[in-house]
Amino acid sequence: MAAVELHQVTKQYPNGVLAVRDLNLTVAEGELVVLVGPSGCGKTTTLRLIAGLEEPTAGIVSIAGRVVNGLPPHRRDVAMVFQRPALYPHLNVRDNLAFGLRLRRPFLRRRISGDSEVVVSEKIVAERVAEAARMLDLEELLNRRPDQLSGGQQQRVALGRAVVRRPAVFLLDEPLAGLDPPLRNEMRRELHLLHRRLAITMIYVTHDQVEAMALGDRVIVLDRGVIQQADRPRVLYQRPRNRFVAGFIGWPSMSFIDGELIGRDGHLGFSAWGWWLPLLPEQERVLAPHAGRPVTLGIRPEHVRIAAPQAGPAISLEVVLVEPLGGGSLWTLRRGGWQLTALVGGPPADQPPVGQTVEVSWDMRQAHWFDRSSGVCLGLGGPEG
Ligand code: ADP
Ligand code: MG
Fold first, then answer.
1. d(Cα 291, Cα 278) in Å, to the nearest integer?
2. What is the CA(39)–ligand 2 centre distance, in A?
3. From CA 360, how far away is CA 22, in angstroms rounded?
4. Hey, what's the torsion of the CAs at 23, 29, 32, 34, to 10 degrees?
């Protein structure tokens, strides 16, 4: 039985905004699914539809095999954690943790026996608070008030408040977005481990594809209210289904070059801005139906190589910018309509070759191909394509 299922769910707000369109999503019990996409793509709306804070305009929302359309949030057995932890300022950590449990106990259903409602005793409240405090490393902080906690500690309390309720589903809306990067990475790992330990169903929302890739068993890429691709992180990276996913997943981002597929001397090649590059035999086979058509070549910075001059078939581009990253650097290369980014290994040079022309090549097997107008991937890009 699926923990959460959305069937053809659409949400249009009263002001006419179509926030979510015809969304189909099945989340298995114990799965950690990440919804990722740019700001405004409908992530929060999707979570709110599951939580019962919004009702869909069309479609069916089910939790644990039960249709929940029309059910208020407190009857859905879900817990939602927001970007800014909403703690009660006048209560200490212990009481903040217990608050939801005490408030909701008339509605708390005993999961083992289905729908019968049970009251949670103070003894159980204390046990669960102690357990969550241990799990989230809050034991030393139980007597502090929220204003005596750091941002990360506050967020841990907010998570703990969800944990004590033992919901069937956790909904997390950019819970780490407000934290400093080092703390964000640490909390990300903690969350990941928490999920492993508890095997709870989690739907995690973020605009950060790095976070999405690091956390998700499965990552769902949303754009303008529509699912673009739902896959394991490796598949999203290696075989993006369209140009949007290709550009959104992976950092540094994929470079795109517009051109045409043109035959020359019996071979098909990619032609753009005065260069013609032959395709590999298997690419010729897959892309033959698109000969003569406008296409976009996609290539990831990690697959671009800066060769020594005259090292082989390559194109000459000018280095316009070198950005040191630490262990490597990011080179921006340009000429005419070509602009490529290359991830160059090794410590950054003291005098980067900005303004010089270099020979640039890449592993053609790593090239991705897209229809220029629809953005749809032609064949399957990447090493398995
Ligand atoms: P995300 O969380 O991905 O940034 P949201 O789900 O918050 O996106 O928003 C999706 C779209 O719906 C946006 O265009 C946003 O402006 C709009 N929207 C969100 N909430 C409301 C609302 N209560 N009323 C009207 N429009 C809304
Ligand atoms: Mg949001």
1. 13
2. 7
3. 43
4. 0
- pLDDT of 308 reads 52
Note the pLDDT of residue 327: 87
Verdict on whether the full-model pTM lies above 0.85? yes
User: How many whole angstroms separate alpha carbon 310 and alpha carbon 319?
Assistant: 17
d(CA 179, CA 243): 31
- Atom of ligand 1 at shortest range from CA of 15: 25
User: For ligand 1, is residue 40 a contact (CB within 6 Å)?
Assistant: yes
Per-residue pLDDT averaged across 113-128, rounded?
67
Tell me if 45 CB under 6 Å of ligand 1.
yes
Among candidate residues 345, 277, 283, 273, the one with its CA nearest the CA of residue 314: 277
CA–CA separation, 255 vs 339, rounded Å? Answer: 7
Beta strands in the chain (DSSP E): 2-12, 18-28, 32-36, 58-63, 66-67, 78-81, 169-173, 201-206, 218-223, 226-231, 255-264, 267-272, 275-278, 294-299, 304-307, 315-324, 328-335, 338-345, 357-362, 368-371
Q: Which amino acid is residue 332, in one-letter code? A: T
Q: How many residues are there in the chain?
A: 385
Residue with tokens 């005098």: 351
Residue 162 has pLDDT above 70, yes or no: yes
Q: What is the mean pLDDT of residues 31-41?
A: 97
Helix axes 181-198, 151-164, angle to 10 degrees: 20
At 38-51, the pLDDT tens digits run 999 999 999 999 99
Q: Sort 336 into a burial class: Cβ within 10 Å, 0-12 / 13-18 / 19+.
A: exposed
